[in-house]
Design a protein that fits this description.
4 copies of one chain form a homotetramer.
Chain A: H1 3-9, H2 14-24, H3 29-52, H4 59-86, H5 90-95, H6 97-104, H7 107-114, H8 122-129, H9 145-154, H10 156-181, H11 190-201, H12 214-230, H13 232-250
Helix pairs in contact in A: 2-3, 2-4, 3-4, 7-8, 9-13, 10-11, 10-12
């Protein structure tokens, strides 16, 4: 976004603009320091949520984690308020993916104050674990995600086709093995058999359910070989998608006729002969 | 298909043509609504077949599912009749892949009327589960499947070579481990050992059979590393196949000399200099 | 091979040449029929060896399989003699990969005549199972294997680097987990731990050995993620190798300056301007 | 490195330079023999460390392995001293990755002399197993590693994005299954559940922990399908990265304007028309 254009429509007070530059900015020293501190805090807070779940923690550790959690909550609350104040459009931020994540991951701690003694209720426990969604805040700091995103978007339809094929495959194989092996061999229902088929086709292979009859093993063998070969399909799709996305990025557009896809080292438009910029 | 040509040879009555346009069509609003409703019904009916297999269902749910099944059967029967009437060549449709699937997946319900009380016979149960094949009806709605199909067709021979190599590998490894480990370690016969080899080479790894002796483990290690590296081969094949299929699609043909493979932004045929269309 | 040149140096009698054309040939109707019959017999004989290993076979089936095996042995012996007689250089054939396989897979039956009652000795049983190597005879009939072979040959060094990396990885991870988990958790020795590491890095995951301690699980997690990401490397290598092999095949060579890598649709050499053939 | 330039700044005595040529050189017959002997010794010494860990070794074998270990230690010590003397900059070598590995893998044997009878202490045992790191010495001999290295370096950022995505995925799935399945089904804490998620997403699938509830199985199914499809991403990244690295290598640079990325068969710079060398 060109700076001249943005400042025209920007009605934020100067201090809010400065705040926004630090919190949302990427290049100034202050903004980079802010980002680094926040990445550290996000990772630390996720590790704290994990640590809390370990049974047999000593009371001292539990106390430390409780205090740390309050520290994280306060800091992320300040960060959230800062983002609301510093954003050019506070509402847009609040409604965005990151705005929702930022809010959702500070709420649980405050809710536990409203309902004291309730931390053993499932809903509250579930809410508290929402804090682990803080990892999604990290996505902010990954520039290159864009290229991957473009490749996946360009391949959206082919990926859908792939998933429908895999789903059909596991439904059919699951139903066949439910019929052949039956409940006595662990294939207690079609959904369970489909679970087995997914475990098999994706080559995970827990082994909690496995075919016992000869025919079942033969069909399982087919499912494995298909799964083993089918993995090639999304890989091919993503590879071709990545190449397309990269070429689309590299290609420069002719200012006269608008043609894209010029070589990065071309000097003249290959259609109209216009001098290419840059 | 150009419309002028098709209407000449089309001897269907106007109402049958209109019906065919709704059922087989892809672009008119009525056709798209019809497709959406059908996709919903297919998914719902497959879920119903799955739900039926869960043991411990309450009698109420069983009744609901039985009625739902009759609803699906009636609707799919009407769809089948509509397709027979609306198709330009009813016989060709009836003999096609989709025609057979459409028929096979409505038959089981009617058969259960002919043989009352027989729903516990294996053959009937098997037939009833055929209804799950309705998922294949979804393939109708996946445009992009064509490109994948072309890529796979172009790579057909190489995929065959790949499968023969993998089969040889699992046969040899299965036989070797049958010899080394023997029935006392779970490798009860060569087919069972080959089942183990497929489980291993495809990296599924259930663990229901695994080598116990040192030499067996060493050979298993080799099989795993081979399987791990070999997966690269179908992936490479499909990726190169996808690129070929895409290039073949993009390439425009010269109206004068027939040469294909022109760049998408070329204005003149690179062989004969003819102006390229489009 | 141009026929005129070959017949000059060919000192076989006419009937041996005709025999050779049928057995080794690929295009004449007799040769193609011979190939089809042999492929069928190879598959049947491999299936028979497998069936023989199933315990609990009825005596009738055992007799049938024994007779079938003698049938296969006689036919493959005639095929071997035919190849020796029909080959342009009998010694070269006998010493080639296929010659050795052809001989090795008929020997066991004759050996069992020399040492009657010995079919339960391990060495003899091992020899008899050699017959399963007949699957390798199938490789003769796979044209497209050549392109894959070229791609793998072109990528030979990179694949070696990949295997050395994976081996170093599993040795280091195996040793670390032997140290951390120790014999009490199933990691009884470094070779066993390396077996576990291969099972893990290749994503097979039997589960016969798995880490129990926290630190062991953490390291196992690292090994899995590495294995999951590293699979991308051979895939990339083979894909690029396949593209290279395909391009090298497609490229035509200039008769004047010898330059290869011309586009398949080029009419003139892009270096010296010579007319390209074909 | 051009020889004339290097000898100017090279203040090593002639015998040290000759020693360095043998030890560090790659092309002279003596250097190649030295490399081959060393590769053999590295592999042998790693195998010896592994063999030592097998319980139930006879005292004779233990003695042989102890003596072999001293032999390896002496030879690798001489190699280390030779490298220090023959290197153009001894300090730089000593501080390099290989210098540290070379030192670390001879130290344990000498330490066991200083602390006799201590070979059962964990720290000493850990140190002794460091000797297995000798496999890393092999990396010296793999030329082609460079191309792979370049491809990985070029894809560094995208690989980081991939790993952050996978980590976020396993953290979220691990937390969800901890909540749904709970300690009674083996998901005893969030770290353990994340271990399960990694086992699942990477398609390893030990089966030591697996979901028991319907909802847990459904979520596990999603995790598997995601893991199965996501593997396509690093593969695409590495393939595109390898192609880039290869093209960058092949491209020749124009001596006049410095432009790279010329076709390998181009005669003139496509930007400035200068004659290209070679």
């Amino acid at each position: 976004m060109p700076h001249s254009a943005s400042s025209l429509s920007d009605r934020r007070a100067p201090w809010r603009r400065a705040l926004g530059d630090i919190i949302f900015g990427l290049s100034s020293p202050a903004a980079r320091l802010y980002d680094k501190v926040l990445i550290f805090l996000i990772v630390a807070s996720v590790l704290a949520v994990m640590a809390e779940s370990i049974s047999g923690l000593s009371p001292e550790w539990k106390a430390i984690l409780r205090w740390a959690e309050w520290g994280f909550t306060v800091i992320f609350t300040l960060d959230y308020i800062g983002r609301l104040l510093g954003a050019r459009r506070a509402r847009r931020y609040a409604g965005s993916f990151y705005g929702v994540v930022d809010l959702l991951t500070i709420l649980p701690s405050y809710l536990s104050l409203l309902f004291p003694g309730s931390q053993y209720l499932l809903v509250v426990r579930a809410l508290r674990l929402l804090r682990v969604f803080r990892v999604f805040k990290l996505a902010r700091y990954t520039d290159q995600a864009a290229l991957l995103g473009e490749a996946l978007t360009a391949s959206r339809e082919r990926i859908t086709v792939f998933f429908i094929s895999v789903l059909s495959l596991v439904i059919v194989f699951g139903t066949l093995l439910y019929l052949i092996e039956g409940p006595e061999n662990g294939f207690t229902s079609i959904p369970t058999s489909i679970y087995w088929a997914v475990v098999t086709v994706t080559t995970v292979g827990y082994g909690d359910i496995s075919p016992k009859t000869g025919l079942g093993k033969f069909l399982a063998t087919l499912a494995m070989l298909l799964g083993y070969a089918i993995i090639a399909v999304p890989t091919g799709i993503v590879t071709v998608g990545l190449q397309e996305a990269k070429e689309a990025r590299q290609g420069r557009h002719c200012p006269q006729c608008g043609l894209g896809k010029h070589d990065t080292d071309a000097h003249y438009c290959k259609r109209c002969g216009e001098n290419l910029p840059g």
